[in-house]
Structure to design on (483 residues):
């Protein structure tokens, strides 16, 4: 990792007799406001924009998924942004300056992306799938790639800031609080956005009426991103200056932002057990997030729900996830153990997918909402179970490397999940004339994914990992250092 000269005055030894203050719970929740903002932005991109493109503007789902997934496919740039924040200050800070500028960019770019959406829809209505229409689709993908770059420029230094301001004894508590705030952001964002998107029932927005859609949606993409940027400032102002231990640490712990994709794959396939567990986590991630690209359009096309109503669906999923995390951490995992808890989560997720399919077959909105609430609960169980299991399957000597490698691989698999969801829906629409069957193929694939994940999980052996994998991982790391 490129680090500037340690003799630089920025790295001069601090006053050892003046210990830095410890993070209190209030500051932890304050930092969580940034993640809360990311939850809101995720709702706007994967929820509102995705729904409008597929359900209202009738853009091919594969094109929509491919464009939106671009912001996740550029995630390897986090390596560079992490190294930049290590080596060079911005606005006088190693982390906060990058966080602020990145946040200002991605909140602004979200509105630019919305305007490209209107142009794409207008061109599709006027000329069909012409060269101009495809050009707008390509431009939308480029805008989302830039959005992803801005997101990486902000979120990676923020993750590094969490390391800088915490110590071993309070880091897990900080990460738990901050991650939970991400789900709170999805719930709060869903409620606020649905109210902003609500229209007079007597003035229903017709499918394809871009003028009406624009009048309804444009204000949301001004108000919500502005709120997110405000949360970013509120979360970070003064924190780095008061709490950062960056300059006082003599060694730099390997973080996620230091892991290249090639090295990630080496680490994750270093032994039979690491390869098996990586395969399990990859299939699990794909299965959990393949519905991201289709759930809001599903509510619109199959259930006839408005944009406001489908946006609110995210609140059911988010509340279920938060409850699932709390329930699993305190009650389920201590009784069943990590592997059995994770298996239970997969089985429960299959049941929930069945409920979502049944809801479409019966056109029951209440069943759909219940299915998403329970699916969120299953997601919470899987999050706690799989994460705890991953920590058991991590060599302590290379913990940062292994977890960082998985973090990068997870981002790429989420991007693939978005594309796969759109591609399967695209194929389903081409095969079936009934929307519920087209969407049902996506959910059926999701259920099969969870079944495969259970099969892979059954082959994971913690004892074998502890006996063999540590040596294999250490060998890979040493080879990289020697090379």
């Amino acid at each position: 990792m490129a680090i500037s000269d340690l003799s630089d005055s920025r790295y001069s030894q601090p006053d050892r007799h003046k210990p830095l203050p410890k993070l209190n719970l209030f500051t932890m929740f304050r930092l969580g406001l940034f993640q809360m903002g990311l939850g809101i932005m995720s709702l706007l991109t994967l929820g509102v924009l995705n729904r409008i493109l597929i359900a209202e503007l009738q853009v091919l789902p594969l094109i929509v998924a491919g464009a939106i997934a671009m912001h996740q496919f550029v995630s390897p740039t986090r390596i560079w942004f992490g190294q930049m924040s290590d080596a060079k200050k911005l606005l006088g800070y190693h982390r906060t300056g990058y966080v602020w500028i990145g946040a200002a960019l991605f909140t602004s770019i979200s509105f630019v992306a919305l305007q490209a959406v209107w142009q794409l829809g207008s061109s599709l209505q006027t000329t069909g799938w012409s060269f101009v229409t495809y050009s707008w689709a390509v431009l939308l993908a480029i805008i989302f790639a830039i959005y992803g770059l801005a997101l990486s420029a902000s979120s990676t230094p923020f993750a590094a800031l969490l390391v800088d301001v915490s110590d071993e004894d309070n880091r897990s508590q900080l990460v738990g609080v901050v991650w939970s705030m991400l789900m709170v952001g999805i719930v709060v964002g869903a409620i606020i956005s649905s109210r902003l998107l609500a229209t007079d029932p007597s003035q229903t927005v017709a499918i394809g009426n871009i003028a009406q859609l624009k009048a309804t949606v444009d204000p949301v993409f001004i108000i919500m991103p502005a709120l997110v940027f405000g949360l970013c400032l509120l979360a970070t102002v003064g924190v780095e200056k008061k709490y950062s231990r960056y300059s006082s640490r003599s060694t730099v712990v390997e973080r996620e932002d230091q892991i290249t994709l090639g090295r990630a794959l080496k680490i994750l396939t270093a032994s039979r057990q690491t390869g098996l567990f990586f395969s399990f986590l990859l299939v699990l991630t794909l299965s959990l997030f393949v519905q991201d690209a289709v759930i809001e359009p599903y509510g619109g096309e199959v259930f006839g729900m408005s944009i406001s109503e489908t946006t609110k669906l995210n609140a059911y999923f988010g509340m279920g996830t938060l409850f699932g995390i709390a329930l699993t951490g305190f009650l389920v995992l201590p009784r069943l153990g990590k592997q059995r808890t994770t298996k239970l989560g997969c089985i429960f997720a299959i049941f929930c997918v069945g409920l979502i399919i049944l809801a479409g077959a019966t056109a029951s909105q209440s069943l759909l909402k219940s299915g998403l609430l329970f699916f969120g609960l299953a997601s919470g169980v899987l999050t706690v179970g799989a994460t705890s299991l991953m920590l058991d399957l991590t060599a302590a000597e290379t913990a940062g490397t292994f977890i960082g490698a998985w973090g990068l691989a997870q981002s790429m698999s989420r991007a693939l999940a978005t594309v796969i969801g759109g591609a399967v829906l695209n194929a389903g629409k081409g095969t079936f004339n009934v929307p519920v069957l087209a969407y049902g193929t996506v959910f059926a694939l999701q259920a099969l994914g969870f079944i495969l994940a259970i099969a892979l999980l059954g082959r994971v052996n913690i004892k074998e990992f502890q006996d063999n994998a540590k040596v294999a991982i250490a060998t890979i790391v040493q080879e990289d250092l020697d090379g």
In short: Confidence is low (pLDDT under 50) at residues 1-17, 200-204, 250-254. The radius of gyration is 23 Å. Residues 131-165 form the longest helix (35 residues).
